[in-house]
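Let's inspect one such protein example.
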Amino acid sequence: MKMAQTQGSSTYRIDSIRTEPSVTAHLHDLGLRKGSEVIILQKNHQGGILLYQDNRIALDTSVMERIDVTPILQEKTITSLDQLVVGEEARITSIAAVGALRRRLMDMGLTKKVPLKVVKLAPLGDPIEIRIRGYELSMRKDEAAHILVEKEGV
């Protein structure tokens, strides 16, 4: 199946990349090649965001149409924190941010394997309030998008 036909929040293995040589070389520089396992975080009509080794990579739909993938079955659903709805519980799998933002998120108690629950969403969806380590924490959705979680009880 083509990467452009995939579902978000799922894991896939790259089978082939049939792009122009310069695009293929750039994808190889990013680590994307045959056999790589990627998580499709978000998709829309313009393209998608995928996760490869804790790095978020944005691809245009025209590139995604030329990458063949195979789904990999997983027991848990991995997604970004900003995609959860009120009442959902999850466990942090990784922080896909770098530098000061990564340190700030970790200083707030957002570290691997920590359980959390989405408590509230503002009327327009931003900010998001979660319960983690016994306290309530509010954060912007763009910050929450960098936190990868696996849903509990799925």
Remarks:
- The longest strand covers residues 10-17.
- The domain at 3-72 is CATH 2.30.30.90 (SH3 type barrels.).
- The chain has a mean pLDDT of 86.
- The two ends are 25 Å apart (CA to CA).
